[in-house]
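ligand=adenosine monophosphate
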Amino acid sequence: MSIQQNLNTLRHPVSNQPEKSPFNAGETLQEQTSKLNVLLLGSGGRECALAWKMAQSPRMEKLFIAPGNGGTGEYGTNVAISPLDFPAIENFVADNAIDMVVVGNEDPLVAGIYDYFEGREGAPLIVGPSKAGAALEGSKDFAKQFMVRHSIPTARYRSFTADNLEEGYAFLEQLKAPYVLKADGLAAGKGVLIIDSLQEAKDSLKEMLGGMFGQSSATVVIEEFLSGIECSVFVLTDGNGGYRILPVAKDYKRIGEGDTGPNTGGMGAVSPVVFADKEFMRKVEERIILPTVNGLVKEGITYRGFIFLGLINVDGEPMVIEYNVRMGDPETEVVMLRIASDLLPLLEAAAQGNLSTLPLAEDPRYATTVMVVSGGYPGSYPKGKVITGTDNVKDATLFHAGTKLGENGELLTSGGRVIACSAYGENIDEALSNSYAAANAVEFDGKYFRRDIGADLKKLMK
Ligand code: AMP
Ligand code: GLY
């Protein structure tokens, strides 16, 4: 079955189901030309890039970012509300006639922000899945079971708890090194261990089940190690089988050049990704995106938002490493540059359950981002360092991540990842040279950045 046929067969039965959108068909038409008040939740570089993109929309009336950072105020109004304080968000939505809440980070989704608002009077549109959908990120065991149910290619695995530790040891003995151990729940990106020795893997399994990552590692997924090069594919879906694929990106997770040292939130990103060509993406769409989007519908899981597919290319075959239920950071800092279409109507249509008529056009240029981080990150690092040089940046957009404004309006560091230096180029070299010029121009005490972003992709192009 072709992808289009598959889509059509799915849409028909589904479109007969009751529409959960707060608008009826007539009102939807009217909504689509009206202006929107939007509340964006989060405070990272990802949210800064989303704010930058959404603020360009002719449909944007007022943009608020909760809590935002030292850079997001350029595109909207920062409001001091935690993304996890649902009653405060509800009050803000009512007081400011918010039409749509765009959830940037996973925590509010896993905590059930969609479900909190569902059915409430005056509820805004929510871009993000229900709690059941957010379990694709919130529970690795759930995600693996979902993939197995829908025959989505992923590493062979089994899950263990303290009750079957011995079976976990036996499973490890069946696998070859390196061993991949994953805490089932959210662990701030730190819950995956890749271990070379069998004995160490067994010891780590015991430690994880004993509370190494608190409740998050009460269940541990052990899976086969996959060897290949990774990329991030983002899909915006409307919960009715409609979806759009966003530009593909690759991020760089390790702190050190040559992918060495500890994992970070992400040190840079590039889009497009040379190996994610037409043939690879055809496989991704047929084998992964369609079964995922359709699987959610079939299982009755409400999902109107972004799906982040962490993929690995194993000899030309895409396999899923993980699902996330939000955009990637720092991938968003390049993906937003490469979306040529107005993002706001796409988000609105996704949240309303009706993406099928809207195109998503890509900018043909390359985009790269280089993350400038605090010295010491991802370990402990100082905060409150004065940032200078941002005015000297040309040919790049600075997406702030860990920054804040001081009492006198001065720009200060406030996190590990400080600023994502994002730039276009006609080719990867030009984009990187613009990103690096910006990374060199921004100054603060202890500044560090990786100098090899995109180097692996450049090698593949030779
Ligand atoms: P995750 O949090 O599941 O994305 O895992 C973090 C990182 O660990 C991934 O980005 C991969 O680099 C690596 N990883 C996770 N699972 C595997 C696997 N089965 N094989 C090889 N590497 C993996
Ligand atoms: N860049 C990987 C992530 O956002 O999880």
